[in-house]
Amino acid sequence: MKSKIFLLFISFLSLESRELGEFVKEIPLKPIVFEIPEIEKTKTASGIEILSLKNSEFPIVYADILIYHGNKNLGKRSLSISRILESSWALSGSKGLPGESYLQKFESLGVAFSVGIDYDKTIIQIAYLKSTENQVLPMLEAFLENPNLTKEAFDNSKRKLKEEISRRNDNPQSLGSRKMKEALFFGTIQGRSIQPKEIEDVQIADVESFQKEIISEQKKLILLSGDFELASWSSFLSKATIGMKEKATEEIDTFTLERNIQKYKSDIRLVDKDVQQSFISMVGVLPAHKHKDFYAIQILNYIIGGGGFNSYFMREIRNNRGLAYSAGSVTNFQESYGTIQFYAMTKTESVPEVLKLMKELVQMDLILQLKEEELVRAKNAIINQFVFQFEDSKRTLSSELRRRDHSMPETYMKDFRKNIEAVSLEDMKKVGYQYFRNDSLIVTIVGPKSIRNQLKGNVKVISPEE
Questions:
Q1: How confident is the model at residue 166, as a pLDDT?
Q2: Is 312 in contact with 303 (CB distance < 8 Å)?
Q3: Distance between CA atoms of 84 and 466, rounded to whole angstroms?
Q4: What are phi and psi of 287, to 5 degrees?
Q5: N- or C-end of the chain: fewer Cβ atoms within 10 A?
Q6: φ/ψ (deg, to 5) at 389
Q7: Cβ(228)–Cβ(136) under 8 Å?
């Protein structure tokens, strides 16, 4: 049964006269009716599930093959193994079409093709004209059943990875985010940064071994959209090798992250780099996606930093004081944990003032002063943005996949609006006290060590590669 979501488009109005949008306060806006598309669910003879959403407007088929084997299965092995495989796999083709001839054939057919390896899964994406399906699917089958990792592709991938690492400290924001992850995810593969020596030590046999693990992983899922024929894909997948379900060697949870917060929160970590524009990051831990506080956290984050020009971060740091090029916050919810990052890009000489202001905006004194009008505006904004989860078939399928991967209820999409609307001012203040605390955040700054004495607190200077 299709579930209807009634969305009322309203403007993002602000409470104070200095905020944007006052001139559209009285404009009446009509509600629209939005239907959540119904996803078809099929299971093949080999046990592989297909989530599909038909759209015959164009004769193009889009498919994502999800294999639940990723970086967390590396264990103590180098992360560079995954990165090398990611870039060399497609370039190596299959034994029938080795090396560049595989991609050349795909290109001649107008096929878009890529391989990506994430923390918990490997994703093979392909898009092709429906008329070429009888040629594309056999090639895809050969790619999965008889991969052909070549020495040339392996060597090229190692060289490209070394070149990438040699440039990874050029961008202050990327550098700051990487150093933040090293602290927050310390002790896990998410907290590792690849070193040049690791790349040198990796052998082609290491990459082939990890590739074999991925292919033989039993847990697979397919997302199909566009003008596909389900019978063709069911037939193709029925031939797939049924492998073994590999046990992950690592699981990240809130306990792991909270332990690292306690370890690093007492220091301001200053990453020494001579820059004119500094990056400031404050990161903390949130509960898992399915936690009851998820909805209240979404709303409070929107008000404090996640709402763009509607947030306190942008208004107070950028608009009213002109201290930052950008400022805000972003949440990241996973199955077993969540994170929140407050950030700002500012002139190096403004770092002390901006950091002080950022901390003032993440404290109970501000949160306790929030009013019902701000809560209502944030709710409406989040509900209006919810429609974009279904702007095309691929995104709709991705939303359903995320719901499943995070063990969210079957009714998550249908009930999202209702659950957002149910959040009270008291609920929002409660999660503020629990999760939006500037004394429970890891602070990382990218800037020259000369600003050390201008910062209040215990400052630890580290190098970009420390």
A1: 95
A2: yes
A3: 23
A4: -70, 175
A5: N
A6: -65, -15
A7: no
pTM, two decimals, is 0.88
In Å, what is the CA distance from 55 to each residue of 44, 155, 230, 394, 426?
A: 21, 41, 12, 10, 44
333, 289 Cβ separation under 8 angstroms:
yes
Under DSSP, is residue 219 helix (H, G, I), strand (E, B) or coil?
coil
Phi, psi (degrees; rounded to nearest 5) at 38: -90, 120
Is 71 within 8 Å of 197 (Cβ atoms)?
no
Residue 141 has pLDDT above 70, yes or no: yes
Beta bridge mates, 116: 123
pLDDT the model gives residue 34: 62
Residue 450 burial (C-beta neighbours within 10 Å; 0-12, 13-18, 19+): exposed
Which DSSP state fits 388? G
Judge whether residue 9 has pLDDT over 60: no
CA distance 379 to 385: 10
Query: How many other C-beta atoms can be found within 10 angstroms of the C-beta atom of residue 153?
Result: 24
Q: Strands of 174-304 (E only): list them.
A: 220-226, 267-272, 277-286
Q: How confident is the model at residue 240 (pLDDT cuts 50, 70, 90)?
A: low
Residue 347 pLDDT greater than 60, yes or no: yes
| Cβ 220 vs Cβ 236: under 8 Å | no
Contact by Cβ (8 Å): 424, 325:
no
pLDDT digits (tens, 9 = 90+) for 413-439: 989 999 999 999 999 999 999 999 999
pLDDT averaged over every residue in the chain: 89
Which tens digit of pLDDT belongs to each residue from 352-370? Answer: 999 999 999 999 999 999 9
341: which DSSP letter? E
What residue has token string 């930093």? Answer: 305
Buried b (16+ CB within 10 A) or exposed e, 376-408: ebbbbbbbbebeebbeebbebbbbbbbbebbeb
